[in-house]
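This section describes the prediction task in plain terms. A model, or a person checking by hand, is given the sequence of a single protein chain and must write out its three-dimensional structure as a string of tokens. No templates, partner chains or ligands are provided. The sample shown here is typical of the held-out split.
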Amino acid sequence: MLDTILDDVNELINLEKGDFKILERIKRAAERNEVISVYERDYVRKLVETHLRPKFEDPKKENIRKPIESSKQTSSLEKPISKPVIKKQPIFVSKSNPKTTKIAFGIGAVALAIILIVGVSQFEFDDTGPQEIPAPKVTQKVSGLIIDTDSPSYEIEDIISISGSTDSSTSKVSLSIRNTQGNLVWSEDVTTKSDGTYSTLLIAGGSGWEDSGKYTISADDGQSEEEVSINIKK
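The expected answer:
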């Protein structure tokens, strides 16, 4: 089966959908024919279903056929149609006050300008469509350790993207998540890159993820420890 993940990633990058750093990492792996993890494939699949190929398409619009009007044949025996009588009404011309006329023209010009502005704004909105407002990223930085998530809240089975950087010379950062009761529900040691950055993906769900509420993500590089909170919804 043809693997289209590289094409999908390129299109998502062009549309600026998803986490740029994660998509770049998946793109490089696909170009080098390297192994792409299940988490990364699920991340791309969710973005594709949301922004490129939605699961549920709008129902096809039914073709509306206009009934063909039968032409009415005019019989030569029909009675002639009488023309309506138009009564001429006298036209009364009144002298207008120059000041009143100027005020009326001014009001008319302002009203026309408002109509044009509203019309142009409506046209631009219809042409471009509603713009998607990206969710604000949650970033916590103290000292040289940064921990970052791609969203402040998630639902069960959503993909959580964690990334950041460290000034420490360590080669790894220990990540963990604790639920609303303070119990450990996930942990991973992430290898840092040469520039000190790190990133990983996980799926929200499993044992310990049953309750909705505030979950705490911790990062430890051996020299400092930082935390950031996310909200989990069932």
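For orientation: The chain has four helices and nine strands.
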